[in-house]
């Protein structure tokens, strides 16, 4: 390899990146993704629009409504006498999330020790929210019922819960570290694929085919600019996560940085492979997005913990590099075991292996001739 | 006039079908991509990995553990010490750790109340929260305190709360947005890049007709994809219910496809190469998708974002489609969604139309 040639080629790549204003996208896109997703994904349910039809209007039923009213989880409106049909229509029009109907004679029956029932209707179009809302409603009503009971319960077991890693169960803590992993997988891959495929589409690749530059020099020259540019993003994203989203950082910064650099190499390897099989930039972009975003989401642990997976998806999760990096990144942000943990050491080694494997495979498959 | 229009549309369609890479990507996006998202993304807490340390010597604790079962929980794994359990949680192999202290059973028999220590990996906040709620309900059920109130809970529209149907639908709408913008922008910019644009300029055809025909051809491709995706993936594989009118959905999709084509026109007007098309479309579409309510209901967003979401046409499209598929809203009640899509769509399309028209 001739360092002079590589340097010249890298310089040319940088000039092109600046001239085509592609450099802006290198920094705008990751920041935009982390801000939009970070603010945009809210799994926690607050202010569920709740309509209580209180047909009883007694002390107990009013007490129950007040409990809903005082909870931050519900945005409550109480009426009486509205017909069930009309209220259900409101749910159909997506104006109400939860409908609770307290029947006539509710208090009387309760005081006489008879069974009575409360009807609850929940908009299930958004499934996770529906389950969460259902559990909230159950919680409020059971609690109210318990405080009304005169008889002491016999087998009451309470839970002393210690929430590890994410005490307040914040969505930001759960999602933002995973987003960093997603961005560092997608963005460098797109850039490296484009840098090569652009030359193919514009025909300037023939300069490479016909000039004495070696294949290895070409690959180094194509991969170094995205590597350098995106390395800065490791720090930018870190700042957004800790400063804007206030995600705690409990682990080793060195591990975070090192693992992220290796992960960028993996991403560049993916880009390299894409650039070999595609001829037009548009196909290269879409293909890169397809093969990185979906595994990047599925196996990140953001939406579903790896330990909850079973069967095929568990095997697939172990095949993609995403899971290994995300384990390390969640460890550095929230858990803080660092390199002392054998699992982190193993996963880091696996990442190094992936990076080498993908880049070597790409270099081997790339041909310095017209395909 | 009409003949020229259809000749142009046919030209674009033939061009599309000749580029096999593009055809493959469109087909992939409208089938496999939607399938993978629907089948893969599960946000409900299921199959949770549970570990426990039992210092009581069995009995009561066994009975409680036997209530943790599929589909919510995996079979609980026994650990001999709290250290081992907590190490496993730190390595994220176990999500919920239960500790039965040695006086657990005694205290329950003596005083009628007792407590369990719970270690919870709460990184995946939603799922941890649901896991906690499951456990609480199991213990409440176990206590059998005889609450005289019966709760009749109906989850409307999607009684089993299956995520796959919702995710598949949301993904299809995102695919429509993505391809609608990129394909439309691509047909113009490719001509710019290949230099055939100049030939277009020389042709004795009204440029308006060219723009209309080119964008209409891409709308047709998208609609083809929508039919395939709804028929095969949504109805065929995921059994998505259709409680409303399917023709209303296709009509809404048709208007929406024009809206995204309008954005595509704008993107095509301001970009010189496919590379720029990709960049600009991503910059425009990401906020569009995130302001749409696909991931978070609008009313749970930051107030400023709520206002902003009013100008996202995808918002009306998603809410409208949700209402048609799941809620089964009457056609008459859908007018606001149609109005939103059509008004924003005409503005965007007209703006893109003018913008690209200037290049002629």
Q: What would you say this structure looks like, in words?
A:
The complex is a heterodimer of chains A (about 375) and B (about 350). In chain A, about 65% of the residues lie in helices and about 10% in strands. Chain A has about 375 residues and is an alpha/beta fold. Chain A folds into two domains: about 5-40 and about 170-365, no CATH class; about 50-150, abc type-2 transporter like domain (abc type-2 transporter like fold, 3-Layer(aba) Sandwich). A four-stranded mixed sheet of chain A has the order 2-1-3-4, sandwiched between helices. In chain A, strand 1, helix 3 (about 60-70) and strand 2 (about 75-80) form a beta-alpha-beta unit. In chain A, helix 2 (about 20-40) packs antiparallel against helix 7 (about 170-200), helix 2 (about 20-40) runs parallel beside helix 9 (about 215-245) and helix 3 (about 60-70) crosses helix 6 (about 125-150). Chain A is elongated, with a radius of gyration of 28 Å. Chain B has 14 helices and five strands. Chain B has helices at about 1-20, 20-40, 60-65, 80-90, 105-110, 125-145, 165-195, 195-200, 205-235, 245-270, 275-290, 305-310, 315-325, 335-355; strands spanning about 50-55, 75-80, 95-100, 115-120, 150-155. Chain B has a four-stranded mixed sheet, sandwiched between helices. In chain B, helix 1 (about 1-20) crosses helix 9 (about 205-235), helix 2 runs parallel beside helix 9 and helix 9 (about 205-235) packs across helix 10. The longest helix of chain B is centred in the middle third of the chain and has 32 residues, at about 165-195. Chain B starts with a helix and ends with a helix. Chains A and B meet through helix 2, helix 4, strand 4, helix 6 and strand 5 of A and helix 2, strand 4, helix 6, strand 5 and helix 7 of B. Strand 4 of chain A pairs parallel with strand 5 of chain B.
Features:
heterodimer, A: 371 residues, 2 domains, 65% helix, 9% strand, B: alpha/beta, abc type-2 transporter like fold, four-stranded mixed beta sheet, 5 strands
